[in-house]
Each structure stands twice: as structure tokens, then as C-alpha cells.
Amino acid sequence: MSKIRFLQLLFIFYLLGSCTQETWNVEQENVLRQGVLTRGVGPMEDAMEGLKGTTLGKKLIESLSIPVKFEYDQSMKPGTMGYVGRGVIRYNGLSDPFGPLLFHELFHVYQMKEIAVASRNHEVEAYMAQYLLVMSIEGAEEKDFYAVSTKFVDYIRKLAKYTTWSVMDTKGSIKFQRLYEKALVELRKHHLYGTNTNYTEEPGPYSFQNLYNFLSIK
Ligand SMILES: [Zn+2]
């Protein structure tokens, strides 16, 4: 069975298998709405508990090979979160709900393990993972996912649909490659991930290798 076909079946399984009532709004990475700071009462741990209540969140947390630590970092822009390596996710400013962004950062831990690398490929994949999480939550609608730009969201949706619904020969993955490339173009234009930042990228052919590995874990 091809990887894309396999991923497609798994995706369908997760959509059917979602069991949580909770619906989260999604915030763009590092552009979280600034809410009331709840420092000292374990807000990140609360969010982790929320994620454990979802099929994908539980699976991701259980799949991490290194322990995760949270560090409140006052020097960061309020409403931001980021993976800095060695299992450390730094944050400043919280707004609730923000579970999907935490899922995104945890997916970076899964992708990169000890050493964080600023990579646009990692971002496309992490946003795809985030999209799958959001859409697996019961009652979720397409508008519940937002990231980077309207066009970027559109490409992520199309990549997911292409991955999910394509029952054609996956040698026809030219379309997948093209959509992935378009998603990269959107990231290149973005101030957080763009060509004027330290983000780099790997050339194609592109795949969601880490996501595939993650979803393949029994
Ligand atoms: Zn990211």
C-alpha cells in the first residue's frame, strides 16, 4: 500500500474515531491572541491535559521520545510559543483555548527531537498535523483552522483533501508536490518564516514523512 493511501485511510479513521466534545479555535503560531496571563497555575499543563483528551493529542504525547518542559519567557513577544530544542517549549502570554498550537509545538518535538531546526518543511508538516487535530475534534468546522495566511490555509486543506480523497494512483503525486510548493511559497513571504529569517528549506520531492511515521504508530 502506498504511503499516501495509507495516510488517507488513517486520516479517515481518526476523523471517525474522534471522541472529544471540545472545540478549539486555532491561533496562528506565535500570534496567539493575548489573554489573561495565568502564570504559576500550570496553564501549559492544563493544555496538555486537554490534548490528552483527544485521540491524536494523546497519541502524540505518548509518542514523544524526550520529556517536554515548559519555560515561561518574559522576553518573548506576548502571545508567543516556540520549540527551542531539548524538549523545551517556551511561551509568553496565554490565551485559552490554545491546544492546537501546543499540539503544533509538540509535533515539532516529535519531528526534531533534541535539536530544533528552523525549517519551512517542518512548518508545512506541523501545520498539516495541526489541521488534522483540529478537524478530528467533534463539531469542528473548516473555519476553526487558521494559520499563516488565507492562501496557506487553502493549500493545507487541499493537501489534506488530496491525501484523503485521492483514490487514484498516487504516482499522480505531481499535484501533491505542487500544492506543497505553493504552501512553501506562502511561508517564504511570511515575516515569521520568510526568506529574511533564519528558516531554511529542503528541496523536493516533498512528503509528510514524520506525520506518516506518527500516524503509523500502533
Ligand atoms: Zn511551527
TrEMBL record:
It comes from the Bacteria. It comes from Butyricimonas hominis. This is DUF4157 domain-containing protein. PROSITE patterns: PROKAR_LIPOPROTEIN.
